[in-house]
Amino acid sequence: MTGVYFKNADGSEGKYTGEGVGGVPHGRGVITFKDGGVYKGDMKNGKIDGQGTWTFAYAGYGRYVGAFENGDFHGQGTWTKASVNATSAPL
Questions:
Q1: Beta-bridge partners for 42
Q2: CB neighbours of 86 closer than 8 A, spacing ≥ 6?
Q3: DSSP code at position 8
Q4: Cα separation of 1 and 47, whole Å?
Q5: 49 pLDDT exceeds 60?
Q6: Which residues touch 37 (CB under 8 Å, ≥6 apart)?
Q7: I want to staple 71 with a disulfide (CB 3.0 to 4.6 A). Which of 9, 21, 29, 65 is the partner?
Q8: Rounded Cα–Cα distance for residues 54 and 14 (Å)
Q9: Cα distances (Å, whole numbers) of residue 3 to 7, 16, 55, 62, 86
């Protein structure tokens, strides 16, 4: 699957490229979000679910590497914060 529209449980939107079943993201893939953030990892039945890395577009947010369930952080993971001297996130 390439360039498939994706909307996460938190409302963030982007394009998905990776494995799928019946036109639904399932397996390993990459989501490039509209804000520039990127998720690389497991998908299950169209949701971010399993192990992955989410690199956030906004400076200071950094990235999260670990477990996800139903589109959100879940279980074990490591959050690495980036420098806070760059562009801040919108409120």
A1: 28
A2: 59, 60
A3: -
A4: 15
A5: yes
A6: 12, 14, 54, 55, 56, 57, 58
A7: 9
A8: 13
A9: 13, 5, 19, 25, 29
Closest of 8, 6, 7 to residue 18, by C-alpha: 6
**CA-to-CA dists, residue 1 to 17, 21, 30, angstroms:** 5, 9, 10
Q: What DSSP line would sit under 31-71, residue for residue?
A: EEETTS-EEEEEEETTEEEEEEEEE-SSTTT-EEEEEEETT
Residue with tokens 């074990």: 76
Please, which pLDDT band fits residue 9 given cuts at 50, 70 and 90? confident
Tokens of 4: 């498939």
